[in-house]
Write a structure and sequence with these properties.
238 residues, alpha/beta, four-stranded parallel beta sheet, 10 strands, 19% strand
Length: 238
């Protein structure tokens, strides 16, 4: 269960538990490494095998305060949130992804001041835009195009992740990590190469982005060059 009120997936719920507790002690702020360590400890204590990882475009000071929106970023805050339960799929149907989005949306609005009009939600619940491949990519393209220096973006994905054979030789392990949109059987997966081109290479300078990918094979889903390791150090990919 999650402090925001509804049961969700392990990774999103664990992060929210850590962040809500941090909000209750404003005299001290958790660092990046403290957030990850607490998430790992919490997941392990509850019998989960997930190992949350942090990747970035540059080497970070892991002792710096963890925040979805840095203090000096005073522009517009935008979010794209995707939750896919794969209703009716057998096997493959999930149960907590819609709740993940609802819980995280409540957090970013109440704690970080995101406004409803600047939050795009895609879910396979019949009430929101269906999270098809084209719809997800269009939402990502739009939020990048709208953003200017000083703005902040939060991306949240809760659903299936997978890996497929690398088709351009840029992966050390021979596989691309992928997101699994609702219409994957018809339209295919969303590859990490496409996400990198869109959300990293295509991003204007001076825009801050935090992406939470709550899915399998998500550790390198954006193909970012630096990965935080459990030993407390960053490892740079080749």
């Amino acid at each position: 269960p999650d402090p925001a009120g509804r049961a969700g997936g392990a990774c999103t719920s664990t992060l929210l538990n850590v962040l809500y507790k941090d909000e209750q002690t404003p005299e001290s702020d958790l660092s990046f490494v403290e957030v990850l360590d607490q998430m790992r400890d919490n997941l392990k204590s509850h019998g989960y095998e997930q190992i949350p990882q942090l990747t970035s475009t540059k080497e970070l000071d892991l002792t710096h305060k963890f925040d979805l929106v840095p203090d000096h970023f005073e522009g517009t805050k935008r979010a794209v949130m995707v939750g896919i339960n794969y209703i009716g799929d057998d096997p493959g149907e999930l149960a907590g992804c819609h709740n993940d989005v609802g819980n995280m949306k409540k957090y970013i609005m109440n704690v970080h001041g995101f406004e409803e009009e600047n939050i795009v939600v895609l879910m396979d619940d019949g009430a929101h835009t269906e999270p098809t491949k084209n719809a997800i990519l269009a939402a990502y393209k739009k939020v990048v195009a709208q953003s200017k220096p000083g703005d902040s973006i939060f991306l949240h994905y809760s659903g299936h992740g997978s890996k497929v054979q690398d088709d351009d030789g840029d992966e050390d392990d021979g596989y691309d990590e992928v997101l699994v949109p609702r219409d994957y059987q018809k339209s295919g997966m969303i590859r990490d190469d496409d996400l990198y081109d869109l959300l990293v290479k295509g991003l204007p300078q001076g825009v801050h982005v935090v992406s939470l990918m709550d899915c399998c094979h998500s550790g390198t889903i954006l193909d970012l060059p630096f990965m935080f390791q459990p030993n407390g150090e960053f490892e740079q990919s080749s």
